[in-house]
């Protein structure tokens, strides 16, 4: 009797949008250039670093993203340093809550892929609100890593075990 078992644990990553610079009007690298070089999977987290009262981050649909329309966001993060979990496959659209900042390019599109290749992608829902949290005061997350390290790996493991009929287990 031969039994093949595969165990896997998906790696979730926390990304600091803008690195040490944070969420600001004119970053050294455009947010979309950065995002286009990054592979985002379901359950990754985006962390936006900004000062309360000076800016905000809006989660919007594609039309609002294209036109910098801030009037009807899906979600509004405005309490300072904020994070959101990318909880489904598909595109996520982020813009500055200040229209003039958005029109000058302070916006971001993130495309999330399925972490499980056996699960078919689902169509994004324009009214879906990703898991979001605002952080301020003493409980703010740790500072962003250096520019050379824009992400932190949280966990990950992959293993395969082969069990033979006589009770011998081989780990590959």
Outline the structure in words.
The protein has 172 residues and is mainly β. The protein has one domain (12-152): Immunoglobulin-like (Sandwich). 10% of the residues lie in helices and 36% in strands. The protein has 3 helices and 13 strands, in the order ββαβββαβββαβββββ. The chain has helices spanning 31-36, 62-67, 99-103; strands at 2-9, 13-17, 40-41, 45-48, 57-60, 75-77, 82-85, 90-96, 107-113, 131-134, 151-153, 157-164, 169-171. The protein has a 5-stranded mixed beta sheet, with no helix packed on it. Strands 3-9-8-5-6 form a 5-stranded mixed beta sheet. Strands 1-12-13 form a 3-stranded antiparallel beta sheet, with no helix packed on it. The longest helix is centred in the first third of the chain and has 6 residues, at 31-36. The chain is globular and about 40 Å long. Residues 114-148 are annotated as: Disordered. One of its GO terms (cellular component) is plasma membrane. This is Putative cupredoxin. The chain crosses the membrane at residues 150-171. It is found in: Cell membrane.
């Amino acid at each position: 009797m031969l039994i093949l078992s595969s165990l896997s644990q998906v790696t979730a990553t926390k990304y600091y949008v803008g690195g040490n610079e944070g969420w600001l009007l004119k970053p050294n690298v455009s947010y979309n250039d950065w995002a286009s070089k990054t592979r985002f999977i379901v359950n990754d987290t985006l962390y936006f670093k900004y000062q309360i009262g000076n800016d905000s981050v809006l989660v919007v649909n594609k039309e609002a993203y294209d036109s910098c329309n801030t009037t009807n966001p899906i979600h509004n993060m405005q309490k300072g340093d904020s994070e959101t979990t990318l909880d489904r496959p598909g595109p996520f659209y982020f813009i500055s809550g200040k229209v003039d900042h958005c029109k000058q390019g302070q916006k971001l599109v993130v495309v999330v892929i399925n972490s499980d290749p056996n699960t078919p992608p689902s169509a994004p829902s324009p009214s879906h609100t990703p898991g979001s949290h605002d952080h301020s005061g003493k409980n703010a997350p740790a500072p962003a890593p250096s520019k050379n390290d824009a992400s932190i790996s949280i966990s990950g493991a992959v293993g395969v075990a082969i069990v033979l009929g006589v009770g011998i287990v081989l780990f590959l």
